[in-house]
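Two entries, shown back to back:
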Amino acid sequence: MPLLTDPFSTEFLARALLGGSLVAVICGVVGTWVVIRGMAFLGEAIGHGMLPGVALATVLGLPVLLGAAVSAVAMSTAIGVLQRRGRLSYDTSIGLLFVAMLSLGIIVVSHSRSFATDATVILFGDVLAIRAADIVVLAIALAVTIGITALFHRAFVAAAFDPRIAHTLGLRPQRAHVALVGLVTLAVVASFQAVGTLLVVGLLLGPAVAARAWTTRIPTTMAVASGVGVLAVVIGLLASWYLGTAAGPSIAGAAIVLAAASSAARSLSARAVARRAPHPEPVDHPQLASAR
């Protein structure tokens, strides 16, 4: 037990655990809908879409989280505008803006001569540098996430399975989709400090995939995904402490490993149940019996 508890007696690692856990719960709630709706590409695109704002904020000496939020909101808004007013499909719009924002961010980075350390933090996060003020922001983000999720739950469910029924019931699926995109944007921005722009999808998808292997009800999936995400944070921070690995990638990697382990365990469990199930005795057809 001391091997598990002693590292978190240090102040900076305790803050990292608390902040990372808040991020994990946000991603567990939002990631459930990302998996159900098949929006992984959107989360990846918004994660990369933050790069120009973060890079500009770093160069200009502005709050990095502000730059990330502005850039992510601009990205998600542009996706919606292209889809509504153009003739491009949803994934095509995301793909074009994905490359455009990533290119712009790299151009900004390339014009800064002392950007190596900052670029590493931008891409892979620095959960060990979370401060008390960051924890307050994450707590507010979690409250907003839970509030929006509860408010739009019926609309999200209806739109996920049949938008026409959602429209018939007066649930406004288009507004629900905008709210869901906003939630994904909020989760990506909130996760930036912990895992950076490249690894955020690991926290969005890994815990939700692990939970979906064992659950059927959406609220239960969210709760289990949040727990798996917190476990990934604990494992990642312990790996960083004892093995000297980068904390953000360790957390994201732990989330993916837990998802793979959950899927494998579910598959083995299903096979074991199938082997234990009684097999029906073969029925001898009367005509075959007479023929014999």
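entry 2 starts here
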Amino acid sequence: MRYVILIIVIVSFTAIIYGLNLDDEQADLANRCIGIGTVGIFLVAMPLFLVTESKGKKMKDYMLTEENIRKMQDKPQKNKDKQ
């Protein structure tokens, strides 16, 4: 799955760069290429990446709940000890 995501990102960046290098006469095609590249990165590659990387992880550990806030307050902070 990582290779699929990598290919989507590379193709998207290539489309954006190609769209930026087109002349003003082909502004319609340039805008489409830039738009397709942006959609590829943010609406296809990013969600696929987030789904594949978050498999098996507990979302409760990353949510800001009262229990997690208490855990953060109880931890000794290393940066304050050095000052």
